[in-house]
Task: structure prediction
Amino acid sequence: MIYLQLFLSFLQIGLFSFGGGYAAMPLIQGQVVSTHGWLSMSEFTDLITISQMTPGPIAVNSATFVGIKIAGIPGALIATIGCILPSCIIVTLIAKLYLKYQNVDTLQSVLNSLRPAVVAMIASAGISILISAFWGSEAIVTLAGTRWSLVAIFAVCVLLLQKFKMNPIWVMILAGVIKAVLSFAGL
Result:
């Protein structure tokens, strides 16, 4: 019976948590703390912290964590499957519809009009991260407040990625090592 409860609870979370991980948190809290009492509020706070620190979506990480706590490995598998099943079904249906109607001019014009907006959103996020990295979280951009060591690391990374086509994972590792060395040297 616990497996069915886990599955149905996380199926609801997966089905109704539009808007990403932060939108899913009240649903997760409602299911695991309020409805079933599987976790205390303190444990739920720990769950969110752990879910933020581990790779993957918050809802999936939460399903795995709660499933293991309540019913071991089988519980984790069942809760996780319940959480991801709605997304898998919806994406499959959308893919089938896209393949069926991909040559329709109206669909192509809608997708073409969305591309610039997506590029703008990605660029906006990148610029925000860049400003935060170079000038801190206050985002007061001044020449005197520029973290020049981070600007240099950024320039080296862009050069390695664009000119030498280096693997991005190795570039990230190299950037981390350079920053650690500079921090150790007091720069």
